[in-house]
């Protein structure tokens, strides 16, 4: 029985970081110092781990770190005050608000308050709007990472049937917009919890992106032999982290981006890329 080739996000992200370290050194030589701010609210262990990882990555490539932490009891006004502070801080050239926010906080209002020019996540409504219009703007990190990973391994996008499972703003919705641009030219079916026959849509796909957060949702019998399958789901269980893709898929798929080691590291690398690109653009390169 054959086994899928691995879309290695860990190795690809390391290559991207090496390139970014050189670009940051060139910026610093011209007295331009990129600085990433993060706003982390509450005590979700996953969010804390991701933010720690983002700052570790920054240190590795020479980007300065500004860390803001608030308790889960923070009010909307307190969160918005921190966003205003980062908007005004010249040492912060880009920032993110770690999602999801604790219950009771309005993430859309917080994202809309960010300076779109400092939106390192591409989640400000103006930047998502530019994506709809097909104009340049920072792209959300996970979808950008998915496209970069597929391109790194020469997985054909033009004309491909792509089944995306999940309609959230960090992955599914923007991924559909990116993959249907002329430069990617894929055909996208966006599935979600209301999709009637998920298996039929998955079976029709050359590329499957599972971002539903439902452990083992994609089984081997649903996947077209040879298809590329990317596991974006992460569920924390007592037994550890579990993805959306059942391990048996490895025997049917042509390509597999596993969890861990596939799309997650690419998300982190694309955040750094957005920060560096914004700093380069601000100085005319
Ligand atoms: N403001 C944002 N919030 C969230 C985003 C985002 O892009 N911007 N995405 C996710 C969380 N996330 C980054 O923030 C993220 C998720 C997973 C990984 C990762 O490297 N995962 C590892 C496995 C997990 C682990 O080892 O703990 C992997 O796949 O290898 C990085 C970043 C939601 N929130």
TrEMBL record:
Protein's name in the database: Bifunctional protein FolD
Enzyme Commission number(s): 1.5.1.5, 3.5.4.9
GO BP, sorted A to Z: L-histidine biosynthetic process; methionine biosynthetic process; purine nucleotide biosynthetic process; tetrahydrofolate interconversion
GO terms, molecular function: methenyltetrahydrofolate cyclohydrolase activity; methylenetetrahydrofolate dehydrogenase (NADP+) activity
InterPro entries (UniProt xref): Aminoacid_DH-like_N_sf, NAD(P)-bd_dom_sf, THF_DH/CycHdrlase, THF_DH/CycHdrlase_cat_dom, THF_DH/CycHdrlase_NAD-bd_dom
Binding-site list for NADP(+): 166-168, 234
Domain Tetrahydrofolate dehydrogenase/cyclohydrolase NAD(P)-binding: 140-281
Catalyzed reactions: (6R)-5,10-methenyltetrahydrofolate + H2O = (6R)-10-formyltetrahydrofolate + H(+); (6R)-5,10-methylene-5,6,7,8-tetrahydrofolate + NADP(+) = (6R)-5,10-methenyltetrahydrofolate + NADPH
Superkingdom as given in the UniProt entry: Bacteria
GO cellular component: cytosol
Function (record text): Catalyzes the oxidation of 5,10-methylenetetrahydrofolate to 5,10-methenyltetrahydrofolate and then the hydrolysis of 5,10-methenyltetrahydrofolate to 10-formyltetrahydrofolate.
Pfam hit, one: THF_DHG_CYH_C
Pathway: One-carbon metabolism; tetrahydrofolate interconversion
Domain Tetrahydrofolate dehydrogenase/cyclohydrolase catalytic: 7-121
UniProt cross-references to CDD domains, sorted A to Z: NAD_bind_m-THF_DH_Cyclohyd
Keywords associated with the record: Amino-acid biosynthesis, Histidine biosynthesis, Hydrolase, Methionine biosynthesis, Multifunctional enzyme, NADP, One-carbon metabolism, Oxidoreductase, Purine biosynthesis
SUPFAM superfamilies named among the record's database cross-references: Aminoacid dehydrogenase-like, N-terminal domain (SSF53223), NAD(P)-binding Rossmann-fold domains (SSF51735)
Oligomer status and interactors: Homodimer.
Homology family: Belongs to the tetrahydrofolate dehydrogenase/cyclohydrolase family.
Organism: Actinopolymorpha pittospori
Gene name of the record: folD
